[in-house]
Amino acid sequence: MFPHGARPTWVSAVDMSQSLGWLWALAVGVFSAHVLQKLYFPYFWMDALFLLKVVKCGLKLELQKFSSSVTTVMDMFVRQAQRVPNKPFVVYEGRVHTYRDVDARSNRLARVFLEKVAPRKGDCVALLMSNEPDFLCVWFGLAKIGCPVAFLNFNIKSKSLLHCVHSCGAKTLIVGSDLVESLDGVLSSLREDNIEIWAMKNHSEDTRVNTLLDKMEAASERPVPAALRATKSFKTPTLYIFTSGTTGLPKAAVITHLQCVKGATGFGAFGGTEDDVIYITLPLYHSAASLIGIGGTIGLGATCVLKKKFSASQFWSDCRKHDVTIIQYIGELCRYLCNQPKTAADKVHKVRLGIGNGLRQDVWREFLSRFGNIKMCEVYGSTEGNLCLMNHIGKIGSVGRSNFFYRFLFKYDLVKYNMEKDEPVKDERGFCQRVETGETGLLLSKVSAITPFFGYAGNKQLTEKKLMRNVFVKGDAYFNTGDLMAEDQEGFICFRDRVGDTFRWKGENVATTEVAVILGQVDFIQEANVYGVEIPGHEGRAGMAAMILRLGHTFDGKQLFERVTADLPSYARPLFIRLQEVMELTSTFKQRKLQLVQSGFDPSTISDPLYVLDHEQKDYIPLTDTIYQSILTAQRKL
């Protein structure tokens, strides 16, 4: 027996050996798990951290359901104004507006309206203003007295303007001083409908237009009672934002407090902090700039640099001047920046993050190569939609990232779609069919308590039109995004095309976006808008591309022929080319196609230069009247 406390050295060696063995096994196990995770689940930790932020935000919203009132974005702003009153909130044309400044000025607006207009809580007020700090002061002031605000596109005129004001039920219209003239021709109609007009001016020669600035200067900046803005439900409408579709009259999408709060969390989810400076050049009447841009700035307690209008030539100098760290973009905006002359200072800036949508792969790669290692995070979602996809990884070409947990929280599906019939494919029971991994399908999002669809103001018919019912089982309802998507093995979701933009030629589906990407790689092409045109005697629509040439370049038909024949299948190659001086766009930089489709390819009615693909000459040659007639009479083989 060993003396008390004594152990032979060989026993100690055995224990140590066993301990080292366990440590070695643990190290090997951890290393192996790490290798397997990197090989088979490379985005695990990035996904986990991102979802943690999303779930945390969702839990906060759920917990508020049990309280007597909910915290709105306006509540967040007031708290930030109390927490950091002297911090710059908006920088505009060189002038700094602090959180306290905007809070006080919006209080003045609120008091003027309470005294002069006396609106009831819930009364909608239409707002027609350009990007400027007073846009925010009016918006916030009206929110403080419980009035929903309808953001009007300042490009609309006459009939469209009247339609927008009426569709949201507004009885009051506030117009910016620089936009009063846009009311010419409709002012009498507005007054006949008992709609009050208030202009952001000190004086008005027209007695039908009331002035606001003079009254705001005389008003008190004391806060109005918080009870006026309080609400018990996240589902209460707080904004109306009009969709900017390429055809038809705009539709007023109902924006609730829930959607606003979700928008305000966007920058934070992507890693934004209160030290960030956000550059906003998109129009404030659009959800990207207002809900995500301004809302996100408030959510972080950060600073935003607001631009009246996007300027490609001033973009990077503004970013350098104001130490911008986050930019908001739309795909076309990035293209315009890439088309600017190169400078030695292209990568001299502090921008680390870009948040937006519609960035094509070719432009994405060129943008990063040109302007440096900026993490570009795509956010997919429509103004009125109930689904938001986010590419938090920053993978080029993806509009969103999915996994098991995301699908568990947000129910969406990709279903088979018949391009020729322009409708979803149904099985023998009348239900939609899900696509296989990697296959293109129509994106649908389930309407539920977690993902509600609030529709359009004053038009139940349009609201119902966006829904698909009895999709997989009787009684279910899905929001129809109208977008064709594909999801790969790794869970990255890629945009393919809009339903209606995709067309069929020679029995095959042609995705206009994919063709435009290829054309964008040709050095003399600055921008291309791809669409399909009808040819008598032929089924489907033939491909055509309207394009703008880069400055200093000329059209090279042989080079273009070589590129499309090398990179595109025969059915996807544009048969016709139309050269334009300016590309017609919507106010949110979306290409307009309808008028181009309707005008066709007739050289006798189109003044722009037209070209046709010629296989014999291996070239795109001028489209003459003779060639045009030979196409119509089927003498020329297509």
Automatic annotation (TrEMBL):
This is long-chain-fatty-acid--CoA ligase. Its EC number is 6.2.1.3. Keywords: Cell membrane, Fatty acid metabolism, Ligase, Lipid metabolism, Lipid transport, Membrane, Nucleotide-binding, Transmembrane, Transmembrane helix, Transport. It catalyses: tetracosanoate + ATP + CoA = tetracosanoyl-CoA + AMP + diphosphate; a long-chain fatty acid + ATP + CoA = a long-chain fatty acyl-CoA + AMP + diphosphate; a very long-chain fatty acid + ATP + CoA = a very long-chain fatty acyl-CoA + AMP + diphosphate. Its main location: membrane. It comes from Solea senegalensis. It is a multi-pass membrane protein. The chain crosses the membrane at residues 20-41. InterPro entries: AMP-bd_C (IPR025110), AMP-binding_CS (IPR020845), AMP-dep_synth/lig_dom (IPR000873). GO terms for biological process: long-chain fatty acid import into cell. Residues 78-402 form the AMP-dependent synthetase/ligase domain. It holds the Pfam family AMP-binding. One of its GO terms (molecular function) is long-chain fatty acid-CoA ligase activity. It is an enzyme of class 6 (ligase). The keyword Zinc does not apply.
